[in-house]
């Protein structure tokens, strides 16, 4: 895995869980890590945690709320005003199985935050990605994409909502987006790469019980059957840094059922293989977010 000295990496949701572990790994390899977080107080605490163990770490906290497209635009413009290149964009942040709710822009929360927010962010940062040799976009999917589908007639959940089904839909959308983005990079002769990964089943803060801590029995089960978040972050680090990858790959743990283990190439479920659905999702996402990817725009000088 390559060193990242002099590289710039944005990680969404970097204040906890897999995002935090990835931030630690990238900072250790010399990258300037941008922790793009909704709660900057928690982001500052996470940055301090990294610096406490690595005094040479270069870490910056910036506010980003993926459930608010105005916030996504402000973040992108602020970043572009300070940087002319972007080596790594890690689309990591996510919400999992909340009660039915909507984003600031009226999208179902999981589809809106997990997919549309990252879609818009990537599109707005595309000029910098194109301006950077061998830049990479890594989008986090999930085992939950298996058997999921994109219900274009009910994306907002108005015709019925089941939390886990909509989570699976959002994670399938992440995977379809990653694959389609890499195809378009290659069609336009760009040397940027787009990859997808998943952490298996990791003990992150997605596994919460409202405001209560997990019961003791549940903690024991989590310890026995879920891998620690440090391991869960390895597919992200692998996808971002392994020199053998060519774009379009899906990375996950190598253990039984891809639930635990060390990172390796994984095979997406057949649900992720429908190119017509992938293209339609891209078109719908551009319409909903108002963000269009201009692959032909000249790079920044």
TrEMBL record:
CDD domains xref list: retinol-DH_like_SDR_c_like
Pfam families assigned: adh_short (PF00106)
Source lineage: Bacteria, Bacillati, Bacillota, Bacilli, Bacillales
Record-linked SUPFAM superfamilies: NAD(P)-binding Rossmann-fold domains
UniProt keyword Oxidoreductase present: yes
Taxonomy, superkingdom: Bacteria
The species this protein was found in: Planomicrobium stackebrandtii
InterPro entries reported for this sequence: NAD(P)-bd_dom_sf, SDR_fam
Name of this chain's protein: NAD(P)-dependent dehydrogenase (Short-subunit alcohol dehydrogenase family)
Keyword Metal-binding found: no
Swiss-Prot/TrEMBL keywords: Oxidoreductase
């Amino acid at each position: 895995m390559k060193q990242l000295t002099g590289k710039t990496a944005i990680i969404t949701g970097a204040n906890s869980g897999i995002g935090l572990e990835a931030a630690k790994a990238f900072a250790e390899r010399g990258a300037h890590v941008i922790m793009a977080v909704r709660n900057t107080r928690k982001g500052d605490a996470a940055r301090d945690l990294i610096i406490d163990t690595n005094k040479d770490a270069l870490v910056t906290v910036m506010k980003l709320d993926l459930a608010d497209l105005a916030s996504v635009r402000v973040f992108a413009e602020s970043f572009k005003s300070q940087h002319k290149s972007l080596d790594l964009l890690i689309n990591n942040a996510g919400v999992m199985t909340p009660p039915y709710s909507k984003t600031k822009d009226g999208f179902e929360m999981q589809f809106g935050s997990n997919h549309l927010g990252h879609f818009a962010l990537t599109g707005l940062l595309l000029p910098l990605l194109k301006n950077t040799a061998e830049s990479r976009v890594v989008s986090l999917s999930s085992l939950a994409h298996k058997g999921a589908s994109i219900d274009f007639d009910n994306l907002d959940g108005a015709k019925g909502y089941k939390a886990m089904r909509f989570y699976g839909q959002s994670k399938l959308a992440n995977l379809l987006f990653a694959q389609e983005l890499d195809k378009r990079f290659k069609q336009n002769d760009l040397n940027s790469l787009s990859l997808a990964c998943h952490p298996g089943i990791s003990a992150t803060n997605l596994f919460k019980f409202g405001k209560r801590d997990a019961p003791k029995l549940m903690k024991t089960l989590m310890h026995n059957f879920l891998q620690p978040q440090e391991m869960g972050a390895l597919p992200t680090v692998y996808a971002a840094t392994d020199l053998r990858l060519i774009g379009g790959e899906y990375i996950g743990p190598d253990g039984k059922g891809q639930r635990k283990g060390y990172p390796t190439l994984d095979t997406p479920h057949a649900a992720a293989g429908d190119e017509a659905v992938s293209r339609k999702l891209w078109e719908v996402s551009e319409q909903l977010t108002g963000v269009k990817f201009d692959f032909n725009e000249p790079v920044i000088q």
